[in-house]
């Protein structure tokens, strides 16, 4: 994914949020490892999840990373770290 693709992806996320459509993406902060997955704290929430979430392979989650998550098959998957 290049920078133009990323900007377009974020723009689509904002449009989804503003139009109140089903949310397909969420922003979260990485919590703690749980088995081979990671807990997260979704934006706007005070507590981390009890559930662990999978992540895409070249990204290796680190405690506190701000990440983009996508809805897939009734759950969310960590796509990667948001910079800036």
* Biggest β-sheet: strands ordered side by side in the sheet: 2-1-3-4
Biggest sheet: strands, sense, closure?
4 strands, antiparallel
Element-by-element helix/strand order: HEEEE
Say what the CATH topology is.
OB fold (Dihydrolipoamide Acetyltransferase, E2P)
Q: Please give the CATH class.
A: Mainly Beta
In total, how many beta strands?
Answer: 4
Question: Could you explain how this protein is built, in words?
Answer:
The protein has one domain (23-81): OB fold (Dihydrolipoamide Acetyltransferase, E2P). The longest helix has 17 residues, at 3-19. It has a 4-stranded antiparallel β-sheet, with no helix packed on it. It contains 1 helix and 4 strands. The chain is an alpha+beta fold. A hairpin with a 2-residue loop joins strand 3 (66-72) and strand 4.
Question: Which keywords apply here?
Answer:
4-stranded antiparallel sheet, alpha+beta, about 80 residues, about 20% helix, OB fold (Dihydrolipoamide Acetyltransferase, E2P)
List the helices and strands and how they pair.
Layout: H1 3-19, E1 25-34, E2 37-42, E3 66-72, E4 75-81
Antiparallel strand pairs: 1-2, 1-3, 3-4
Concise account of the structure shown:
The chain is an alpha+beta fold and 84 residues long. The protein has one helix at 3-19; strands spanning 25-34, 37-42, 66-72, 75-81. It has a single domain, classed as Beta Barrel (OB fold (Dihydrolipoamide Acetyltransferase, E2P)).
